[in-house]
Specification:
mainly beta, Immunoglobulin-like, 6-stranded antiparallel β-sheet, 7 helices
């Protein structure tokens, strides 16, 4: 009886006080908001901490002897057994005011929804009584706009950075901001973006696997004439194959501006495929699963384009392989499951004579029972050779002969490739230094224990992901790894270039490896890596996200400087019910990096397409029509022009991603005279996004083409 009295006291008296306390710190504080209990879920303490910033009411719906507010609220006992109650303002779809009470344990025995809350639903109904099962609840809270006082403080700080008189040194530095970025839901793509490629028409091709089952969008009618025929394999003589039709789309063309999705028809399974942009701007996708093992696909940019496919075009199966564009605009495809070689694929023809070379490194780095060398990290080096990293080892390869020119030091700490799934980029190639020799640096972060896949897949024991990073200048004779530490562990994350030359690390998990339900603890906090800062000062944590982006998620940089984030499916089919830890995700988000701080908008440069040359020739000068702000200083040091090759992103690796800093000859507030890259070894032929960047603030980007 005493327990019931205490519960009633918490609901009727403590909760309203907490609500008023939270409201007093917001614009319009003290104004009462109506709340309706719409569900009972459970969440973890770490995941709840970032969401508690906007919590306004705490209601304890759990009948327990120990009724305490959780440690995430009080900073006290971490062993609370409370049930989470989510409360939502009526009509606030997707953006509820959130109430979080954390449960660190399984559902309390005999728990039932309160009879006083008739709208409460029981999420445990129909679930298996696994005491470790904790379904993850995605909640997007309302975030109040900055107060006038906060806006004024930010503007004052910015003004101090723009004082012209005696601050010439400050004028050479990038703007600094306390803004940690922002997340906004863009739309539902209707498919889960396992693979993602941005095209020059600002449409993103998103695709999953044809084995996922029904997506959220059908193929265009008529049905079944326009459907995909599915032939299931025979189990035995008594169970012959069953033919059926699949009328659901497993790829879409997603407009990054209007958020419209156009369903695409693909016949060969793209599951765990690879790809890249051709010099003419269309997608060349290769490999995949079963009928897609040796397939080549082309996807163009016309309003009615659909996939053109050629099954059986490749020399070997390419499942979990890496595809990289070369200096002549054609591709090499490296590796794949049980495929220890590489081959060449032309960018134009779908009927071609195969050419393949053995690659012993892949056989030597294949961990028995775990692999840990799929989706190898592959980069075209400025001398025309190819850098290949697999598991923990790397080589420099002469691609046209198969000759290994050198082997680099082993990166210590663990495994870095699928399913250990670390992240990697080729750091910006800087042409401002001049001279015939251009340095190339590789960054590799995160990954997992070599034994992680076996533990996760067979025992559902999720080992901690790696926290370290290795950085190496691969063009130097004395190349060696420089080790740094991220703020948190990460596996299956994405690593995306930003136009201000920072690198964004986002998505993934803190425990486990890639694979169906083989990871836990989503890493919701993006990290900014600033390669030009000193060792130990390069990482900065940003605004946490709200949607778990786990296995099969993807992201890419887009022309307005935002990052498009999509996908996540840890389940072997489309699963939207509460009986799994992480549901299939089809919602697309955009992330605002710190340089998009609203108070800095007035200082951002702009590029005028009409006055800018958009067809570039190697080594030739070209003009960029711009508008810069003279009041914040203009110099060869604080103004940059960059080119970005958008990647084909899948399984935590953004292949073909490339950021190039151009040499500039003359800069005024209206024009920039720049020099195009000298050859396809630096910038393979094709489409790039061009930005002008002034003191770390990028313009909106425009598409240019080189070497076509």
């Amino acid at each position: 009886m005493a327990v019931l009295h205490r519960a009633l006291f918490l609901v009727l008296f403590v909760a309203p006080l907490l609500f008023l306390h939270g409201s007093a710190h917001k614009p319009g504080g003290g104004k009462k908001k109506e709340h309706k209990v719409v569900g009972v879920v459970r969440d973890r303490q770490r995941q709840a901490k970032s969401l508690l910033k906007s919590a306004t009411v705490v209601v304890n719906g759990n009948k327990q002897k120990q009724e305490k507010r959780p440690a995430a609220v009080t900073g006290g006992n971490k062993q609370d057994n409370n049930v989470v109650v989510i409360q939502q303002n009526p009509g606030a779809v997707n953006k509820p005011h959130t109430v979080i009470v954390v449960s660190n344990t399984a559902k309390p025995a005999g728990y039932k929804p309160s009879q006083k809350d008739p709208d409460v639903t029981n999420p445990y109904a129909g679930l298996t009584p696994d005491k470790n099962f904790k379904p993850f609840k995605t909640v997007i809270p309302n975030k109040p706009p900055p107060t006038q006082q906060e806006e004024e403080a930010t503007q004052k700080e910015i003004n101090q950075q723009t004082t012209t008189a005696a601050n010439a040194a400050i004028m050479e530095r990038d703007f600094e901001t306390k803004f940690k970025g922002d997340w906004k839901v863009h739309a539902d793509a209707f498919v889960s973006a396992m693979q993602l490629q941005l095209l020059p028409n600002n449409k993103a091709i998103m695709s999953d696997t044809t084995s996922f089952g029904p997506s959220k969008i059908e193929l265009p009618k008529p049905h079944p004439a326009n459907c995909r025929e599915v032939v299931q394999r025979a189990v035995d003589k008594q169970h012959p194959p069953i033919n059926s039709t699949d009328c659901w789309a497993h790829a879409v063309e997603y407009d990054i501006d209007t958020a419209q999705s156009r369903p695409l028809k693909v016949l060969t399974d793209q599951w765990c495929s690879c790809g890249g942009l051709s010099p003419k701007g269309y997608l060349v996708s290769t490999g995949g699963w079963e009928e897609g093992y040796r397939a080549v696909r082309h996807m163009g940019t016309c309003p009615t384009c659909d996939f053109e496919e050629k099954p059986g075009a490749l020399a070997s199966n390419r499942w979990y392989a890496t595809q990289v564009i070369m200096e002549d605009g054609n591709f090499i495809i490296v590796g794949g499951r049980d495929t220890f070689n590489y081959e060449f694929v032309p960018a134009v023809e779908m009927n071609f004579q195969t050419r393949q070379f053995d690659l012993p490194l892949l056989r030597e780095t294949n961990d028995f029972g775990s692999e840990n060398n799929l989706y190898p990290f592959v980069y075209l080096v400025p001398d025309g050779n190819v850098y290949i990293f697999a598991n923990s080892r790397s080589i420099l390869l002469e691609p046209n002969t198969g000759k290994v020119l050198r082997e680099y030091p082993v990166l210590p700490g663990g495994s870095r490739n699928y399913p250990a799934s670390g992240m990697s980029v080729l750091l910006p190639v800087d042409l401002r230094k001049g001279g015939p020799n251009v340095d190339a640096e590789v960054l590799i972060c995160g990954g997992g224990d070599p034994a992680g896949w076996g533990k996760a897949d067979r025992e559902k024991i999720f080992l901690p992901a790696l926290k370290d990073c290795g950085r190496m200048t691969i063009t130097r004779p004395d190349a060696k790894w420089e080790i740094d530490q991220m703020p948190s562990e990460r596996v299956m994350g994405d690593m995306i270039h930003l136009p201000n030359l920072d690198v964004l690390i986002l998505s993934g998990a803190k425990k486990g490896v890639s694979g169906w339900q083989n990871a836990d603890e989503p890493n919701m906090v993006p990290v900014l890596y600033s390669p030009y800062k000193k060792l130990g000062e390069r990482f900065k944590e940003l605004e946490p996200g709200y949607i778990p982006r786990m296995y099969h998620s993807s992201s890419t940089l887009i022309p307005d400087g935002k990052v498009l984030v999509a996908g996540s499916n840890t389940n072997p089919t489309y699963t939207f019910t509460e009986d799994v830890r992480f549901k299939t995700e089809t919602i697309v988000e955009k992330f605002w990096p710190p340089y998009l701080e609203s108070n800095l908008r007035q200082y951002r440069p702009s590029v005028h397409e009409g006055g800018t040359e958009k067809i570039l020739k190697y080594g030739q000068q070209f003009r960029i029509k711009v508008k810069l702000v003279p009041e914040i200083g203009i110099s060869q040091t604080n103004v940059k022009v960059v080119l970005y090759a958008p990647p084909f992103t899948t399984h935590g690796y953004s292949m073909n991603q490339r950021m190039i800093v151009l040499n500039t000859l003359k800069i005024t507030d209206a024009n920039i005279q720049a020099v195009a890259p000298p050859s396809g070894k630096i910038a393979p032929p094709g489409y790039y996004i061009l930005w002008a960047v002034h003191r770390g603030l990028p313009s909106s980007g425009i598409w240019v083409q080189i070497g076509a």
